[in-house]
Write a structure and sequence with these properties.
Layout lengths: L12 E3 L11 H6 L5 H8 L5 E5 L7 H6 L3 E6 L2 H4 L7 E4 L11 E6 L9 H14 E10 L11 E6 L2 E12 L2 E10 L2 E9 L4 H10 L2 E6 L6 E6 L10
């Protein structure tokens, strides 16, 4: 059964042929979008062969390159249509991220696709708490952020393939520091749109959100500071009492 309009979250929408997820993503579009250098960034930041919990895996744009590099990936998404695109042999879990509790710990927890910018601050906190709940005490959490100027210089467009374009059409403030963002994806055989809520986070606000979830930023992995490696924040041991 395809995701329906009735499943959509408030402030989120999408148009175009095929299944649209509750947060407005078109499954067909995410099957076509290039993955960029994300797999290389991740591979360089974690131990070889690490176990990875990928939150919001979608159709496997990162899942498949990571498994090809020898990582053991558990792929989580709330959309059955997205998970249907994951290769056989990869462990998949269908669940909203903030509700996930596998009772397991992983070497690496991955929260990509700018999910940390959820418009609802409570949802954002739930996402980060899921990361903390599932990361090993000596493991790490990799988070992908929006660029500092991502909401500026709009409209703009980026080529994503031969005769294919990704366009950031508009960014509209809707209150409480949240923007409604509208994107358009154009391919020779069709056009898709997505509208979603995004809360810009400067470095201070981002690191505070990590701290509130029991994580601490250890290192920014890219020059634009869009990828960060965080670690569990360990409480200092209490003094020994005789």
């Amino acid at each position: 059964m395809a995701d329906t309009t009735d499943d959509r979250r408030k402030g989120y929408d999408g148009t175009g042929e095929g299944a649209i997820t509750p947060d407005g993503c078109a499954v067909e579009v995410w099957s076509r979008l290039p993955v960029g250098d994300a797999p290389e960034v991740i591979e360089a930041a974690v131990p070889p062969g690490a176990s990875i919990l990928e939150l919001g895996c979608g159709v496997g744009r990162m899942t498949h390159p990571l498994t090809d590099r020898g990582f053991t990936v558990t792929a989580v998404d709330e959309s059955a249509e997205m998970l249907a695109r994951i290769r056989p042999g990869v462990r998949t879990v269908r669940s909203p991220i903030e509700a996930l509790d596998l009772g397991e710990r992983f070497d690496v927890v991955l929260l990509a696709s700018f999910l940390v910018h959820a418009g609802d601050a409570a949802v954002r906190q739930g996402l980060l708490e899921t990361c903390r709940r599932h990361v090993a005490e000596d493991g790490c959490v990799l988070v992908q952020r929006e660029g500092e100027d991502w909401h500026l210089n709009v409209p703009r467009e980026t080529a994503i393939g031969p005769d294919a374009w990704s366009r950031l059409v508009s960014v509209t403030p809707v209150g409480d520091g949240v923007n409604s963002v509208r994107c358009e994806y154009t391919f020779p055989d069709g056009t898709w749109t997505q509208t979603f809520l995004s809360r810009p986070l400067d470095t201070e606000a981002f690191e505070q959100a990590l701290a509130d979830a029991g994580l601490t930023a250890e290192r920014y992995l890219t020059e634009d500071r869009t990828w960060v490696r965080a670690r569990p924040a360990h409480r200092p041991q209490e003094p020994h009492r005789p």
